[in-house]
Design brief:
This protein has five helices and nine strands. By secondary structure, the protein is of the alpha/beta class. The chain has a five-stranded parallel β-sheet with strand order 5-6-7-3-8, with helices on both faces. The protein has a four-stranded mixed β-sheet with strand order 4-1-2-9, with helices on one face.
Length: 218
């Protein structure tokens, strides 16, 4: 089922002069990035280059050493509550082992203000209809990642921050991921994904981290 276009997804992201540091180690310096609605950005670079830290900084989980991150509506007004337009999907598994999958997604729908009526449809979109009544602990790693993607869909936010989203999906799961990314971008969403391999089936703007030189992408 194709979801309707959503104008609330039209939010822009601008980063100016960003510096990121972990402990005494500087990961990123003088980093600039501009993202418009529909952009897909693939962040590449070796382990420890700052890909995940950059995503966490945009999400508000890591405090930059310098610089500014701005989220703005296409009409020009700055976003007052960044958490209402950002979704972060990291490495940590959000699925609880001892609870039914459908109950977990219903809880998540309540938490993020989505309708519970959308949960069954969302499970179908990620190919987990048959697993709805299973406990999280019996799901495979790939099924758990699909469940995490279902949470992302229920949140329905403009900017997706994804850390290695294709791992550990199989070929069918990667095709599903590509379709979801393509649809989100076509609806005016922005995607920033930390990757080691290319994102499946979509064309992304590549941005490589890993040096202390100035990084600029616009």
């Amino acid at each position: 089922m194709t979801a309707p276009a959503r104008s609330q997804h039209e939010v822009g992201l601008q980063i100016r002069g960003l510096a990121l540091q972990r402990g005494f180690r500087r990961l990123v310096t003088d980093f600039d990035l501009t993202c418009a609605p529909g952009d897909i950005i693939a962040l590449q670079g070796p382990n420890g280059s700052g890909k995940t830290t950059l995503l966490r900084a945009i999400a508000g989980f890591h405090t930059p050493a310098a610089g500014r991150i701005t989220l703005s509506h296409t009409q020009g007004a700055e976003v007052e509550e960044p958490g209402e337009v950002l979704s972060f999907l990291g490495h940590q598994d959000p699925i609880k082992a001892g609870e039914k999958l459908i109950d977990q997604l219903r809880f998540w729908a309540d938490l993020c203000g989505a309708s519970r009526d959308h949960v069954t449809e969302t499970l179908a979109r990620v190919g987990l209809t048959k697993q709805a009544d299973l406990q999280g602990g019996v799901l495979s790693a790939g099924q758990r990642k699909r469940a995490a993607l279902a949470r992302l869909l229920l949140e329905d936010r403009a900017i997706w921050l994804l850390d290695e989203p294709a791992s550990p999906l199989d070929q069918e799961g990667r095709a599903l991921l590509g379709a979801l990314l393509d649809q989100h971008a076509k609806q005016g969403g922005i995607i920033l994904a930390a990757v080691h391999d290319p994102l499946p089936t979509v064309t992304a703007r590549l941005l490589t981290l890993g040096t202390l030189e100035t990084g600029v992408a616009a």
